[in-house]
């Protein structure tokens, strides 16, 4: 049988003396773990904890939840620490008021997140970090970092995030400590956003979309067949960022031999317009687009040039 928390208010469960054999359902208010430590679980090991819309499961720093799957059905997971297996059945939330290892297994073994097309939004307190460690993401959807501190990919000595079918949408701060792969990366940084760990690029499988002209974005490596989406910026987009809010330089790079599509959206460049700027032309990369003027990759960046029959020019 399960423990079911209903109604408003906050229920704090003592860590010792729990005998219920199932998981915990939080249908209203907040359920909070009443102690720290790694031993034992709330309910039986393997019992599923379900958090419904408007309700909160507060891990309260308890370190034993790697043994229990969570179903987030529109609810909030607060202060998680080594929550290893999460399934979304609605758009849901993670709130991290302190430094937290959010989605990770014991000893950083593989953790899983099944998105099912939904959004998991992270709200992290300013100056704090919430980490996704050795995490495999399936089922599509969006990971949204929208306020406060750093959403962190990977950890010292551990793997990053494998989310080749998931969108990463960053509104505030990001840190990438290990190899990380996403379907799309949208750099929707607001003023005051920070980026650290720029030496570890995000491998983008489909689309990279910078959305601000002040170049707040994390380093990216576009994979073969990916799209460089310049529809949301104006003028010449700088493929190397030296912004004041970065711990290092953010750079755009390409997988060897990649063919990259440049998407200008409703923008219509004129002859000889410069589209991007970089310090050296990428080698062994082909750029394509669907506008009448061909793209030429030159030493200073991408240009719109009238040169029939050529997609890329080496100079």
Give a quick summary of the entry.
By secondary structure, the chain is an all-beta fold. The protein has no helices and 30 strands. Strand 29 and strand 30 form a beta hairpin.
Characterize the structure shown:
The protein has 315 residues and is an all-beta fold. 0% of the residues lie in helices and 45% in strands. The protein contains no helices and 30 strands. It has strands at residues 3-5, 10-13, 24-26, 30-33, 49-52, 56-58, 70-73, 76-78, 85-90, 92-96, 100-103, 111-114, 119-132, 135-138, 142-153, 161-170, 173-176, 180-187, 195-196, 202-210, 220-222, 227-229, 237-238, 240-241, 250-254, 259-263, 276-277, 286-288, 295-298, 301-304. It has a 26-stranded mixed sheet that branches. Strand 29 and strand 30 form a beta hairpin. It is elongated, with a radius of gyration of 22 Å. Mean pLDDT is 87; it is low at 308-315.
Task: Write down the Rg.
Answer: 22 Å
- In the predicted model, the low-confidence regions spanning at least 5 consecutive residues are 308-315
Assign an overall shape. elongated
Number of helices: 0
The overall pLDDT average reads 87
Percent of residues in helices comes to under 10%
Distance between the termini: 71 Å
Strand composition percent:
over 45%
Oligomer description = single chain
Class based on secondary structure composition and strand pairing? mainly beta
Q: How many strands, which pairing sense, and closed or not: the largest β-sheet?
A: 26 strands, mixed
Order of helices and strands: EEEEEEEEEEEEEEEEEEEEEEEEEEEEEE
Query: What is the tally of beta strands?
Result: 30
